[in-house]
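Dear colleagues,

As part of the handover before I leave the project, I'm documenting each prediction I ran so the next person doesn't have to rerun anything. This entry is a single chain, and its sequence is reproduced below.
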Amino acid sequence: MIERKNADQLAAMSASGKLTAAMHEHVREAIKPGVSTKHIDTLAETFYVKHGAVPIFKGYGGSLGGQPGFPGTLCTSINNEIVHGIPSDHRILEEGDLIKIDAGCALNGWVSDSAATWIVGRDGVVAPDRSTDAGRLVAICRQSLWAGIAQAREGNRLGDIGHAIDSIAQAEQMGNVRDYVGHGVGRALHEDPQVPHYGRPGRGIKLMAGLVIAIEPMFNLGTHDTETLDDDWTVVTADGKWSAHWEHTVAITPDGPWVLTARSDEPEHPEPDFVWQY
């Protein structure tokens, strides 16, 4: 069942989204060579708990008396890892790595979800150099996210979002991951509807005010095919080539998309023709 949020609920979701955005900016400062993904994960968990939020990924997929669920606050996926990478003391960042940070929290019962891909420089995160494969991958995937967000408008259809994203993947000859999709967000991390990052314009459910969705394209330098490692979580590219992942939680409003997880360098209310550029 697709749930539409009222004004008070959207305000509560905005508070959750702002906290996740702030968490991303907090851990971004720690990303540099020699740092473990477990250290970054600990920083994120401490930040969320300090601000009264519950890390929504930790324990996800577990069951009473059964599987313990995902062990981290963050998904930390490096290079050819697409998503769901497990933080570890043994995964040490190196200069030139791509690290994908996917995170979410529940604040007063309302969930936010966001992901970013950062390039590890000598002294910290560096902007992507479009003359390199890795830099072009990161920049174009982020551009596709904002192209999808631009279509997240009342009266449009779900296929308009997917088509905008996939058109960029096709034009740039990148693999657009199809095995994992976006989703509705609310009191649960994954709600209806599913949000594919491909599709036909004018098709799918009509977007209505109050709908909140996570849009999260994952682009690969090679094939869109994926494989899952023996840990049953980490998803990698089937051909070993590198991958990027960007995500925002977005509310449909009468005035256009409201990016609930926008960081300080991003607009909460982008104009219809907004195109992200580094």
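Helices lie at 7-28, 37-50, 133-150, 158-171. Residues 7-28 form the longest helix (22 residues).

All the best with the project,
I.
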